[in-house]
Every structure is written in structure tokens, then in C-alpha cells.
Amino acid sequence: MRLEQFSLRLTDPLETANGPIEAREGFLVRVNAEKDDTDDDRDDRDRPAAGLGEATPLPGWTESIDDCRAALDGGTPDATTPAARHGVSLARADADARAADERLCDRLAAEGPFDSDSAAADAVPVNATVGDGTPAETATATRDAVEEGFDAVKIKVGARDAAEDERRLRAARDAAPDAELRADANGAWDRETAGAMLDSAADLGFAYVEQPLPAEDLSGLASLRGRGVGVGVDESLASHSAREVLAADAADVLVLKPMALGGPDRALASARAARDAGADAAVTTTLDGVVARLGALHVAAAVPGVRACGLATGSLLAEDLAPDPAPVRDGAMAVPDGPGLAGDSLASLY
Ligand SMILES: O=C(O)CCC(=O)c1ccccc1C(=O)O
Ligand SMILES: [Mg+2]
């Protein structure tokens, strides 16, 4: 296994309940073919890697960069360091798919937790992400997204007082009468505020509100369901398994970030658990580099009939690891031809 550290600046900081995200630091993970792993890595330095992964920790959702590096150096990271495990798991899955001459999503669909006769999708619908701003700015950004072809838009809330956020939700709905709208509070509200905001979101025909309460408040999340708008969980999945969240009846939608969950395999298992419990799943990123975004796209493509996903985050980065082989077009991302993550498109990274 070979590691290469990187740092990617964002075009504009993204405000979250854990503070602004300004840059994403992580590691490219290159693995060799399975049989070579016991050999001396030096022989492989000049040869392309068999598989490519990415470990891009985001404190609040995953381990720190130092803990990520230590886990990768240890060789076999487990789910206590999800970003490190993601990097290795994705690289192994990519190597496996490339060896089988298949797209990663086809491999995941065939070997994953969903019925193997359901083929992977060729494209995944995605939502636009609208950050904090005034009601007028929110309306403009939402209108722009719809004009670009997005059928689903996610509005970040929780940074302003509830009355102003309510005006923002209304402005978004007025700007996009027909779009599927979601809001993401990143755990910012108390139960009373969350109840009132969910009622407003229901009146405005929002599909779901992501993390209206802090991650730990599973019983509060459960009590918010059934108000005419869905409850989504994101941060709760960093401290609780999908099964725990579902057993607590705390969610209508699981927001699955493969980087935070420890890998494509674990994200797909969580999607299956959601469906089995009568809930749904959307796959998103932690503002990852192109390798992990592609990994998340393949995960989403392997979820039968997946709803719009939060994968359109590449445009938030001012720089990337390589040109994006899966740009957003008409509100969807096409899965690149294989084998693996993107066939020859990422050749320079192997
Ligand atoms: O889901 C999306 O639309 C984009 C991803 C996103 O919002 C996000 C990105 C980085 C960290 C946290 C989050 C979040 O969903 O809260
Ligand atoms: Mg979220």
C-alpha cells in the first residue's frame, strides 16, 4: 500500500454546525494486486497500482488526519477510523473490479447486499447544495440550480434564527415550485424549534429535513417523524450504527457518506438496512476528492432506484486530484465506463 498526502482548497467555505469547511486534507491510497502484498513494495513503485482509494477525514464525521495516517500506516484500519478504512476498502474494491474487468458499481451490485439480479444504474440523480445566505440569496441559488437542470435542491439551515430560516425555505419553494426540496440543519435546533421548523417544511412540501436535532438525540428524532415531512439522519450515523438508528425509529432517510461510514461496503449495507426497515437512503460525500466522489457514485448506482444523492460536491473544490470523469449534467451524474472507478480516465493517478 502506498500513500500520498494531499490538500484541496474549497472555492468558498461551507458552513456546518461544526464550523466552516475550508479545505480537505487526506491521502490517496494505492494498493497492489493481492498476490503482491506480501512482497517488497519497492518492486511495485514503478508499476501502476491495481486499485485506488481515498482517505479524507473530516473531524466531526470521522477521525482526525493524524489518527487516519496512523491507522493507514498500521495497514488494516477498522471502522473506528472510518476514513482510513474507506481508503483501503475502496482501493481493494477498485482493484477487484478492475481485475474482473467490470465497473465498480456492477461488482457492488453483484456481490453486495441487494439482490444480485438488480443491475447497477448508468446514472444517478443528484441534488444541488445551497449554503447559508439571505432569503434572496437562497432564492437565487435555488433558481440557478433548477435552471442548471437539478430536480432536487438541499438548503443548509441552522446558521440563522428560525424565523429567518423559515423565510429562506419559503424563498426556495417560491423559486422552485416543482423541485424536490430538502433542508439540512446539521443538528443545530432544539426539539421545540425543530418541531416548528418541520411543520413549516411540511407546509412547503419539503421531502425531508436532515439532522434537525443533535446526533445523540435519537428519541427526539423519532418523535419528530410523522409530521408530513421526512426526518433524515447524517451526523447520528457517525456515533450510531444504521441498525441502531433504524431500531430507534429515528429516521425516514439515512444520509450515507461512505467516507464517514468506513467504506463503500459499509455504506451499501446501511442502504440495505434502511430499505429493509421501510426507510430510504441517499448517498452523499464529505466534500471528497474525485476518487472518493466516484466511489460514492458507484455505491449510489448499486442502490436500486436510488433517490437524488448529494454527490454534486466537486464544484465546491477549487482544485482536485484529477479532472472529473463524472461531471453533473442535467441534474444527474453518469457512471463512467469501467473497469473499476473510471476505466482509463484516472490513469495518471495509478
Ligand atoms: O449532501 C449534500 O448535498 C452535500 C454534502 C454536504 O452537505 C456535507 C458535506 C460535508 C460535510 C457535511 C455535509 C452534510 O451533509 O452535512
Ligand atoms: Mg448533512
TrEMBL record:
Key words, A-Z: Lyase, Magnesium, Menaquinone biosynthesis, Metal-binding
InterPro entries named in the record: Enolase-like_C_sf (IPR036849), Enolase-like_N (IPR029017), Enolase_C-like (IPR029065), Mandelate_racemase_C (IPR013342), OSB_synthase_MenC1 (IPR010196)
A Pfam family that the UniProt record links to this protein: MR_MLE_C
Residue span of region Disordered: 28-63
Swiss-Prot/TrEMBL cofactor(s): a divalent metal cation
Catalytic activity entry: (1R,6R)-6-hydroxy-2-succinyl-cyclohexa-2,4-diene-1-carboxylate = 2-succinylbenzoate + H2O
UniProt pathway annotation: Quinol/quinone metabolism; menaquinone biosynthesis; Quinol/quinone metabolism; 1,4-dihydroxy-2-naphthoate biosynthesis; 1,4-dihydroxy-2-naphthoate from chorismate: step 4/7
SMART domains hit by this protein: MR_MLE
Domain Mandelate racemase/muconate lactonizing enzyme C-terminal: 135-231
EC number: 4.2.1.113
Active site per UniProt: K156 (proton donor), K257 (proton acceptor)
Residues the record lists as binding Mg(2+): D184, E210, D234
A GO MF label: O-succinylbenzoate synthase activity
Broad EC category: lyase
A biological process from GO: menaquinone biosynthetic process
The organism's place on the tree of life at top rank: Archaea
Biological function: Converts 2-succinyl-6-hydroxy-2,4-cyclohexadiene-1-carboxylate (SHCHC) to 2-succinylbenzoate (OSB).
Entry's family note: Belongs to the mandelate racemase/muconate lactonizing enzyme family. MenC type 1 subfamily.
Entry protein name: o-succinylbenzoate synthase
Organism: Halogeometricum pallidum JCM 14848
Gene name tied to this protein: menC
